[in-house]
Write a structure and sequence with these properties.
421 residues, five-stranded parallel sheet, 17 strands, 36% helix, FAD-binding domain-containing protein, flavoprotein
């Protein structure tokens, strides 16, 4: 029997939670420590969804129904004009093999992370307000990890970097600044809870575009007291260096600077922009970030350090599913290799990296979907109106299903998981 692994996970989010679940399934006596920069598990943030092979994985975890029970209950997406009148509605498909913009598993990021950690939280050690400062790869295959605040250094069999877009571990592994692997998609987003039901009971999300790549969105919130999730998205073109620089600077300075910039940018925006700006100021969970891909040339260091989830392959719209798949495959390869870490990491990279590159594909979709000019918005609206009116989206799904096609899947080995105790 293999000696229990002693593992440090940097990051207490979805990727870290999925990995911890499967590791304790594969090796129940494994020692897991998680360091998380936040003072507690984050329960705020955007809604995320689960697609492709990740759907099969949550079923294997026995968590599908729990995730459905805690979903946002969003039924589809409605595009609205400046008066709030819908002109195109795309509903969820009701299927898991073909999903629309609204997934069958639409759930808030923090809620999903909490569900993943539920079965394991008493079997691992969680250290909050802490990060990894640096690591030193040892000749014996282990890794020495030094923490930022406590300054302590401990030896582990494996260091899992699940610490997001700006992963310092990724930067050290590649010998480069973390931002050098960030592929900017020209989208900045803000998320917050509105303390009233601005959708008036509707379970359809509402999306409105103004010129200049400005988006106001309202999404359902499952809270019983009647709330709404508010979103502002700022979509910039590659040539608009000035606007992008202002957004990045505000993001760097913090929430107050970012909210001030949003108030300036959306001062003359239509629909419900003004009341949403007011609600933004009254919220207590404001969060802002960029949409970006991580294009890392490597996912492991030929030793005992590995990138997982957004730290290695952030992909807006598909990143949560990739994180779930990545955690499953990483542990599966540890299991297949008899918990020989270096071999498992190479196999993991060989399976995941090609699929990631294929999945990241066209990064101009948000620019197409959110034009800068009034005539661009008009053309986009007309196309959406035609597609929705003629039900071309449903026709395409029906034809694809008849031909046996489905959403892009990652073929995985059949890992010999031990039976649950």
């Amino acid at each position: 029997m293999a000696k229990p692994l002693n593992i440090l996970i940097s990051g207490g989010g979805i990727a870290g939670g999925a990995f911890a679940y499967w590791l304790l399934r594969a090796q129940p006596n494994a020692l897991i420590t998680i360091v998380e920069r936040a003072p507690a598990l984050r329960l705020t943030g955007a809604s995320v969804d689960i697609r492709s092979t990740a759907v099969d994985i949550i079923k294997k975890m026995g968590m599908e129904q729990t995730i459905r029970d805690h979903s946002t209950k969003e039924e589809g997406m409605s595009w609205v004009d400046s008066n709030g009148k819908p002109f195109a509605i795309f509903r969820a498909t009701g299927r898991t093999d073909f999903q629309s913009m609204t997934s069958e598993y639409e759930i808030h990021r923090g809620t999903l992370a909490k569900i993943f950690f539920g079965p394991t939280e008493e079997r691992l050690s969680m250290i909050f307000d802490e990060t990894v400062d640096h690591y030193d790869q040892r000749d014996d295959g282990k890794v020495d990890v030094t923490l930022t605040n406590s300054k302590t250094t401990k030896t582990y069999d494996l260091l899992v970097a699940a610490d997001g877009l700006g992963s310092r571990i990724r930067g050290q592994m590649l010998g480069a600044k973390p931002r050098e692997q960030i592929h900017d998609e020209g989208v900045h987003a803000a998320y917050f809870t509105i303390k009233e039901d601005m959708l008036r009971g509707s379970k359809l999300a509402a999306w409105h575009n103004d010129t200049g790549g400005r988006v106001v969105m309202l999404r359902p919130d499952p809270h019983p007291e009647g709330r709404t999730r508010g979103h502002f998205m700022c979509v910039t073109t590659r040539d608009d260096v000035e606007t992008k620089a202002k957004l990045n600077q505000a993001l760097k300075e913090g929430n107050e600077s970012y909210m001030k910039l949003l108030e300036e940018r959306y001062a003359d925006a239509g629909w419900v922009a003004k009341p949403v700006l007011k609600a933004m100021r009254e919220s207590d969970d404001f969060y802002c970030s960029i949409f970006a891909q991580i294009r890392s040339p490597r996912l492991q260091n030929d030793g005992a350090v590995v990138l997982l989830g957004d730290a290695g392959y952030a992909t807006p719209g598909f990143g949560t599913s990739l994180a779930i798949m990545g955690g499953y495959i990483l542990v599966g390869e540890l299991l297949n290799s008899g918990f020989e870490v270096s071999t498992a990491l190479k196999r993991y990279e060989g399976l995941v990296q090609p699929f990631v590159k294929k999945s990241q594909g066209d990064d101009n979709m948000m620019q197409y979907l959110n034009p800068q000019t009034w005539w661009g918005v008009w053309i986009r609206d007309t196309i959406l109106w035609l597609v929705a009116g003629l039900k071309l989206d449903k026709l395409m799904i029906m034809v694809s299903a008849m031909l046996g096609m489905q959403d892009s899947q990652l073929a995985m080995p059949d890992y010999p998981w031990p039976k649950e105790e």
